[in-house]
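ingest -> validate -> predict -> emit
validate: passed (alphabet ok, no gaps, 84 aa)
predict: started
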Amino acid sequence: MKRVSVYSLVAWALVLAWVGFSGPSALAAPLDTAELGAGIETGQQIKEVQEAVTRFQNGDINGARALLAAAVKKHADLPPPDVI
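emit:
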């Protein structure tokens, strides 16, 4: 049987502790919905995206997704609706 050094055990314990403490909260920041309606890089306002944000905030998830899909069809430079 292979012997494990104390240093490797301590190293693994530190790695596991770090992974445990970093958790999901370290993976993503809260989403600012005000920025979603800002449009593309040129500052252009996209009506469908603004309306989708409003519908999403009011709980109409399917309506918001449909508006985002329409916006993507009109503006090819937007990411897919699932990403927005």
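Helices lie at 6-22, 33-36, 47-57, 61-74.
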